[in-house]
Every structure is written in structure tokens, then in C-alpha cells.
């Protein structure tokens, strides 16, 4: 009978321990997901800003060779990340895709000019900077006009700033929630050992002696939970890599590794801190408090 009771107690302890680890790892997983989004928000913002095209329309009398030379010249300007020459024929094919094969039927001659598509460096992606960039390009006699979506520029800049603020707020809230949830989980685990703590106090054990096994257990608990959370993060990133290749290519591998390491360290830190304070509180309980 005693052996059966011991097995039941052992199963309950294992179940409680596993439940605690799973609960902590789920919280850490959420923190890790938002952490990855936060650290890569800059990379995503940079990707969008540096891949919006600004079209420099050249005058009708500019030949393809002159347009190519002009493309090479402006590609060396400090605000240009990349410049692509668009010939009259290439521009015509693009317009056929947009407007249909017979769009030229209403014109006596091909109205599509030679142009150069420019992608700017991130630092120049703002309405004020774009105005200056346009002014510099318009100084060239070959340029007829510089075309870009001003409303799109403002929309991207404004939304990226809002997304950054939202992510920071979510990270702070998740950190607070994770601390509260993990603290409650640890407190319940330590509370089940309150009689053992009280017995050690009666035989004269010091606070550090009583705390030591709980803190060691908390280190392993946080480590295991952190490893489970990072494993889940790796699985999510694997799916992203296979299904959203372009999105994954924008992510910085070093930052991803740093976030995963941070998740593990956060799990250990919170578990140890919570255990430390909870055990200290349990040590101060008197006999009557043990049953409530």
C-alpha cells in the first residue's frame, strides 16, 4: 500500500513539474515571437523603404545609350542604392502588361520614354529628403520628370513608426505578464513544499540552506522551459523559411540567435527570482499559516 501511495505522489509531482515547465515555456514562446518581430522590425522597414521605386523619366530625345550613361552616373550618387535602366522597348512591354496589347493603337507613335528606376538608401526615405533628391535629379538636362507616390511614402513612414511603438508596448506587457504567470506557477510549486520548509526550519536549517535546492530546481526548470520555447521558435522559423522565403531573408540570423539566447536566460532569471522571494516568504510562515 505504501508503495502504491508513493507512486501516486510521484506521478502527481511529475505531472505538476511538467505542467509548470509547459506553462512557463508557452509564456516564453510568446515573448520570443514578439522579440523576433521587434528586433527585425528595423530590417523589415529598411527592406520596404529600399525597394520602393522612384522613376526618373528622361526626355524624348534621349537615346538608349545616353540613358544608360545617365543610369551609371546617378548610381554613384550617395542617396542611390540601386539604379535600373528601362529602355523604350522594356517600358512598352510593361505598359502592355498593365493596359493590354493594343494600348498603342490610339497613338501615332510610341509615347513611352526612356527612364531610370531608382531605389534610395533608407536614410533618404522621407518626404523632405525626397524633395531634395528630386531637385538634384531635375538639375540634369536629360531629365523630364521624377515620379513617385508621395502618399505611399508617407504611409510607409507613418505605419513603420506605429508598428515599432506597438511592438515595444506589447513586449513590455508580455514581460510583465510573463513575470506574473511564472511567479504564480513557481509560488504554487513551492507552496506544496511548505511543510518540508517548516520542518527544516524546526531543525535549525538556515535560510540559504533551505533556499538552495529550490533555486537549483528553478535554474533547471527555467533552462528546460527556455529550451522548449526556443525549439518551438525554431520550428516556427523553419515554417517561415519554407513558406515565406522573402520574409525570412530579411531577418538577421545573429539577432535571431540573440533572441533565443535571451529567451533561455529570461526563463532562468524569472524562475530563480520568483523562487527566491517565494521561498523567503514561505520560511516566515508560522504554524497556523501552513494550512491556509
Termini distance?
Answer: 29 Å
Q: How are the strands of the largest sheet arranged?
A: 2-3-1-4
The structure class reads alpha+beta
Estimated radius of gyration: 31 Å
Fraction in helix: over 70%
Q: Can you tell me the residue ranges where pLDDT is under 50 for at least 5 consecutive residues? A: none
Explain how this protein is built.
- The protein is an alpha+beta fold and 292 residues long.
- It contains nine helices and four strands.
- A four-stranded antiparallel sheet has the order 2-3-1-4.
- The radius of gyration is 31 Å and the shape is rod-shaped.
Identify the notable features of this structure and list them briefly:
4-stranded antiparallel beta sheet, 292 residues, 4 strands, alpha+beta, 71% helix, single chain
Task: Give a quick precis of the structure.
This protein is α+β, with helices and mostly antiparallel strands. It is 71% helix and 8% strand. It starts with a helix and ends in a 9-residue tail after the last helix.
Topology:
Layout (H helix, E strand, L loop, with lengths): L1 H49 L2 E6 L5 H11 L5 E7 L1 H12 L15 E6 L6 H12 L4 E5 L2 H42 L2 H9 L4 H37 L1 H5 L3 H31 L9
Antiparallel strand pairs: 1-3, 1-4, 2-3
Helix pairs in contact: 1-5, 1-7, 1-9, 5-9, 7-9
Amino acid at each position: 500500500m505504501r508503495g502504491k501511495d508513493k507512486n501516486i505522489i510521484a506521478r502527481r509531482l511529475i505531472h505538476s513539474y511538467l505542467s509548470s515547465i509547459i506553462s512557463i515555456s508557452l509564456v516564453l514562446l510568446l515573448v520570443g515571437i514578439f522579440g523576433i518581430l521587434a528586433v527585425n522590425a528595423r530590417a523589415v522597414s529598411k527592406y520596404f523603404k529600399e525597394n520602393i521605386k522612384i522613376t526618373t523619366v528622361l526626355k524624348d530625345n534621349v537615346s538608349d545609350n545616353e540613358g544608360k550613361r545617365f543610369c551609371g552616373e546617378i548610381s554613384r550618387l550617395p542617396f542611390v542604392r540601386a539604379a535600373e535602366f528601362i529602355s523604350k522597348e522594356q517600358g512598352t512591354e510593361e505598359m502592355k502588361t498593365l493596359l493590354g496589347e493594343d494600348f498603342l493603337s490610339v497613338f501615332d507613335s510610341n509615347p513611352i520614354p526612356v527612364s531610370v528606376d531608382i531605389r534610395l538608401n533608407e536614410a533618404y526615405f522621407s518626404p523632405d529628403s525626397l524633395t531634395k533628391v528630386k531637385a538634384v535629379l531635375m538639375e540634369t538636362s536629360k531629365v523630364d520628370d521624377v515620379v513617385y507616390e508621395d502618399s505611399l511614402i508617407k504611409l510607409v513612414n507613418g505605419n513603420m513608426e506605429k508598428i515599432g511603438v506597438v511592438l515595444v508596448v506589447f513586449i513590455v506587457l508580455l514581460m510583465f505578464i510573463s513575470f506574473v504567470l511564472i511567479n504564480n506557477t513557481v509560488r504554487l510549486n513551492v507552496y506544496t513544499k511548505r511543510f518540508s520548509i517548516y520542518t527544516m526550519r524546526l531543525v535549525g536549517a538556515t535560510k540559504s540552506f533551505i533556499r538552495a535546492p529550490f533555486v537549483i530546481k528553478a535554474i533547471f526548470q527555467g533552462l528546460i522551459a527556455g529550451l522548449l520555447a526556443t525549439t518551438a521558435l525554431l520550428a516556427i522559423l523553419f515554417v517561415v523559411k519554407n513558406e515565406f522565403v522573402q520574409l525570412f531573408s530579411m531577418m538577421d540570423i545573429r539577432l535571431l540567435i540573440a533572441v533565443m539566447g535571451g529567451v533561455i536566460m529570461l526563463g532562468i532569471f524569472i524562475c530563480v527570482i520568483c523562487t527566491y522571494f517565494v521561498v523567503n516568504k514561505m520560511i516566515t510562515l508560522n504554524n497556523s499559516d501552513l494550512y491556509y
